[in-house]
Design goal:
single chain; Fructose-1,6-Bisphosphatase, Chain A, domain 1; binds D-MYO-inositol-1-phosphate; binds calcium ion
Length: about 260
């Protein structure tokens, strides 16, 4: 079995735990004021880590619910067991299992799976990206004013600090200059929707590696671009995350303050 097939099989099995949990009663716990976690986030991550340890023994496993410390390793797999936990808790079927494999600071393999809608996105470096068996390609939009842009709001918004200010300023700057905005609630899927041309851009502040490690490759393999707010290659230590179909990237950046 090829590694990408193994990764897909793990995501599909993990998705069964998420799907069962979606229709069941949940224990909702708080990691922060509005940052939620359920027993299904923990169970799904434990399952993925156990499987990855068997199939990818020489990779550092960086899971949202269990990892502490650095994000930087020569070989790492970044795991978000349920991306979109707020949607999951509220019964909104926009959630995903996200698994991204990185080597030497670059993404090499990725799977993002929405088990409720049964949509499987995947990519391998240099080989393109797909939803199921269908190849993905970003939109051809070149005009920011006609662009549909997705975003997200960091949990730190409740502190009304610089993250909140940047988020509000960005919305205020962008809204008159775009077609409309979407806040769908799962960053991994935001990147997949961008990769398949449903949206034209995406930005957010304070994303973590497990939110974007898989989606970055799926987007790049579909022809999209990812930078920080300075227009440089995005790194996991950057605060701002800007993604697009590549064609509206500089227009999008021009309305977002460097941070
Ligand atoms: C969150 C989602 C959301 C984004 C947040 C993330 P979680 O992940 O991706 O769309 O706006 O910044 O933390 O907590 O549901 O895994
Ligand atoms: Ca997440
Ligand atoms: Ca999560």
């Amino acid at each position: 079995m090829k590694n990408i097939d193994i990764l897909q099989a793990i995501a599909l099995e993990a998705g069964k735990i998420v799907r069962d949990g979606f229709y069941a009663n949940k224990q909702v716990m708080h990691k922060g004021t509005v940052d939620l976690v359920t027993q299904y986030d923990l169970q799904t991550e434990a399952y993925i880590i156990q499987e990855l340890k068997n199939s990818f023994p020489d990779y550092q496993l960086v899971g949202e619910e269990s990892h502490q410390g650095s994000y930087h390793y020569c070989k790492a797999i970044y795991i978000d067991p349920i991306d979109g936990t707020t949607n999951f808790v509220h019964g909104i079927p926009h959630v995903a299992v996200s698994i991204g494999v990185w080597e030497d600071g670059k993404p090499v393999m990725a799977v993002v799976y929405n088990p409720i809608l049964e949509e499987l996105f995947w990519a391998a470096a240099g080989e393109g990206s797909c939803r199921g068996q269908t190849g993905l390609c970003v939109s051809s939009q070149t005009d920011l004013q006609q662009s549909l842009i997705a975003t997200g709001f960091p949990y730190a918004k409740v502190n009304r600090g610089i993250e909140y200010r940047w988020t509000i300023d960005s919305l205020s700057n962008l809204l008159p200059n775009i077609r409309d905005i979407r806040r769908l609630g799962a960053a991994s899927l935001d990147l997949c929707y961008l990769a398949e041309g449903k949206t034209d851009g995406f930005y957010e502040i304070d994303l973590k590696p497990w939110d974007v490690a898989a989606g970055i490759l799926i987007l790049q393999e579909a022809g999209g671009a990812v930078t920080n707010t300075f227009g440089e290659a995005f790194g996991f230590d950057d605060k701002g995350f800007i993604a697009s179909n590549g064609k509206i990237h500089s227009q999008l950046l021009s309305h977002l303050k460097p941070i």
